[in-house]
Design goal:
By secondary structure, the protein is an alpha+beta fold. The chain has 4 helices and 6 strands; from the N terminus they run E-E-H-E-H-H-E-E-H-E. The relative contact order is 0.12. The model has no long low-confidence stretch (mean pLDDT about 85).
Length: about 220
């Protein structure tokens, strides 16, 4: 599941100053003339930290609210409402920075693009679609379950190296290598055996018949 994290809450204010006082330049009428800027000025107004207390004391934000995001949003909305009434303010928007992580592996959330889903070098198998996560197998399984897409390795019996067609690996030795092409039994009408191992030492070669499903496995 994709988890959203929000921080750096801020109120973006676009000003169109019409007089010195709009920029806090007061008491200069007898000494200076005001030249209005050619375009609007945008500044960021930051909300006071939830955990910032009086007398310079502070505590973690989550000690002040069970829902930190909502608390910051409400504080920014209050600031925005106050600023909108001022004549020099042209536009006010509340913004924050959003980052996304996987709830299973905690890594940054990334998804396949349409181009990547069509490219064997990127997709997990022939059922991969645009939007599928790429961080971990659990995220992929959850994504496919929600959409009724066959799970990764459903029907896969072996993997082939596209740059070395003579290399055929069983599921045990081929799973997890991004550049290998997954194969079903229909792709191997003549069968095949796993070539994993040292070609110079036949005793290390797996030699497993990839079409034979052993106990506890599903093809």
């Amino acid at each position: 599941m994709k988890t959203t994290h929000r921080d750096e809450w801020r109120v973006m204010v676009t000003l169109k100053p019409r007089r010195p006082a709009d920029l806090g330049l007061t008491g200069l009428d007898d000494l200076a003339e005001f030249l209005a800027p050619s375009g609007p000025i945008t500044v960021a107004v930051l909300p006071r930290r939830l955990g910032k207390l009086s007398a310079g004391m502070s505590v973690p934000d989550d000690m002040m609210s069970r829902d930190v995001d909502t608390a910051y949003r409400e504080r920014c909305d209050e600031i925005a409402a106050e600023l909108r009434h001022r004549p020099q303010v042209d536009e006010v928007t509340v913004q924050c920075t959003e980052t996304y992580t996987c709830s299973h592996c905690r890594r940054q959330w990334e998804e396949l693009t349409a181009e990547e889903a069509a490219d064997p070098d990127y997709r997990a198998d022939g059922h991969s679609v645009a939007g599928e996560p790429v961080c971990c197998d659990k995220a992929v399984a959850e994504f496919r379950t929600e959409r009724g897409i066959p799970q990764f390795l459903d029907g896969v019996v072996a993997f082939r190296n596209p740059s070395r067609p003579e290399v055929l690996l069983c599921r045990e030795h081929g799973e997890g290598w991004a550049w290998l092409v997954p194969l079903t039994s229909e792709d191997l009408p003549d069968g095949g055996v796993c070539t994993h191992g040292d070609p110079a030492d036949p005793s290390t070669t797996c030699g497993r018949d990839v079409l034979i499903v052993e106990a506890g496995e599903t093809a």
